[in-house]
Amino acid sequence: MDYSENKPVWPGSSSFAVGKTPFGFFDTDTEFQDHADKFAKYAAQHVGYPIMDVELQDVNFYTAFEAAVIEYSNQVNQINITNNLVNTIGIKTGSSFMPSDGLTGAVVGNSFGYITKLSKAYGTEAESGGNVKWYTASINMIPGQQTYNLKTAAQSAVGTTLSDTDGIEVRRVIHNAPPALIRYFDPFVGTGLGSQQLLDSFDFGGFSPSVNFMMMPLHADLLRIQSIEFNDRIRKSHYSFDIHGDDIRIYPVPTTSGSASTPFFKNVWFEFMLEQDKTDNSVLFGNTALTKGAISDASNIPYTYQEYNTINDMGRAWIIRYGSAIIKEMLGRVRSKYSSVPIPGGEVTLNGGDLVTQGQAEKEALITQLREFLNKMTKEQMLTRQNVEATQMNEMMGKIPLRLYVG
């Protein structure tokens, strides 16, 4: 193709109409319509018009202008998402209070909803709350049998058959020795452990129940309880259990009622939860956001492009500069198609490569500048600045001399 052929160049003016941008996100915005033609004129003159021809058409300028607004909205919304995601997780995007354009342009207040859900998850593990249901089941003891299947006992409590893949998590086994206190203290018996002799010395032995008049230091009771517990732990098969997989082994060996050698216990109770319930509730902390149409992460929090007519002058200045950089890169790519143009008696070298390099460098610099500015607008950074300001203010106020009042 001969570059000398008559090719479209920028005529010096344009007239914007709906549908001339690729996406049309802002085509119906009257201010965008007005500024689109002004931007085309600004960008064309920025790259040399009318001294030089600009090998672009009006739709190229409109495309660059739309792309600049989209990029600005994207950068702003990244900060909005960073600030507000934790306060909006789980909110249904179709809620009645949600405007048609989502959270764009709306003030999102602070919420402890996410923290509350997180604390419930910790509460499940710490046994101080949570939202996973606990079940209680019992194992009927069989004399001479130590090992029992927990899942078999749990099925009756759950009310359904548990398959091999249905796991349970045992949280507590209620299998303890009887309290030592009831084994040495009986309000109607004062004999043993030297109590009767003590009562007789105070002439309380003839009263019934005479033990009500016994005065002993509290540590004496504690020492006796401890001695009974140590005796059971060292000299007997203590109340205990081992869990391996789905089986539990009970100590001491269950025996028949009335056996003199081993204490009798008919049932052993345990508390448990279903692993599937725990898994289901761990996803988004049991929130109904598992259903479609709710905010779950940064990908579906409802932020749309900023309305051009609400962007302030600082933002519009950035958009114009970024759009001009796009035009410079775009024009450079067009001119790079031909490195030189033949003319009578010589040739003209085009600056396409330089324009592409300059446009890319300007875009990167503008993105960096905007990100550095927006990063200062995060809630964390703003709280840090307010703290520094408050500290400096207190220091300044501390230098004000105090008035002395003489009464």
Task: Give keywords.
407 residues; mainly alpha; 3-stranded antiparallel beta sheet; 10% strand
Please explain how this structure is put together:
With about 400 residues, this protein is mainly alpha-helical. It is about 40% helix and about 10% strand. The chain is built from ten helices and eight strands. It has helices spanning about 30-45, 60-90, 115-125, 150-160, 195-200, 220-235, 275-280, 315-335, 350-375, 380-400, and strands spanning about 135-140, 145-150, 170-175, 240-245, 245-250, 265-275, 340-345, 345-350. The strands form three sheets. The protein has a three-stranded antiparallel beta sheet with strand order 1-6-3. It has a three-stranded antiparallel beta sheet with strand order 2-5-4. A hairpin with a 2-residue loop joins β7 and β8. α1 crosses α2, α1 packs across α8 and α2 (about 60-90) packs parallel to α9. Residues about 285-290 have low confidence and may be disordered.
